[in-house]
Specification:
The chain has 1 helix and 12 strands; from the N terminus they run αββββββββββββ. By secondary structure, it is mostly beta strands. The strands form 2 sheets. An 8-stranded antiparallel sheet has the order 1-12-3-8-9-10-5-6, covered by helices on one side. Strands 2-11-4-7 form a 4-stranded antiparallel sheet, with no helix packed on it. The chain starts with a helix and ends with a strand.
Amino acid sequence: MSLILGILAQSGGAAGSASSYQSIATVTVGSGGAADVTFTSIPSTYTHLQIRGIINKSTAGDVAMRMSFNSDTGNNYTYHFLDGNGSSAIAGGSANDLFDVFYPISTTSSIFSGAIIDILDYANTNKYKTSRVLAGTDLNGSGRFGLKSGLWMNTNAITSIKLNPSSGNFSQYSSFALYGIL
């Protein structure tokens, strides 16, 4: 997994050039899974952050991946999305809710979903924090692809990020890499 994440980092991505990315931390879920993945003690030395994930979960059915900042699980998030499955598209949003970053996460053990999350101006204490997400999953010919943007209605600098499925656990080999963007 870390090889794939490294290749993704070298490819550039959604913000900046490949040379402007610096690895902060990588987490790969071990056997037994994990209820969440949390990045802590994030330095304030970058302009933006990016998380790249290769994700699988343990429970059946469609489950969203959620993201929260600085242990804030209140209704201080809002988001909107555009999703498609190859034959139809949907758009919508939610206000005063937790940020559902990505939906659905695959439950098939051999199929992992992918996500790239940009967190813009995360250390700027003069504005709310915005995020944008590009994510998708292929289920052998079906699947879903989505674009999402979110807002954390707080001016605090982001020092920790928690990712968790809305139910169940992340499965073994799910992997997340946090990068700082200069």
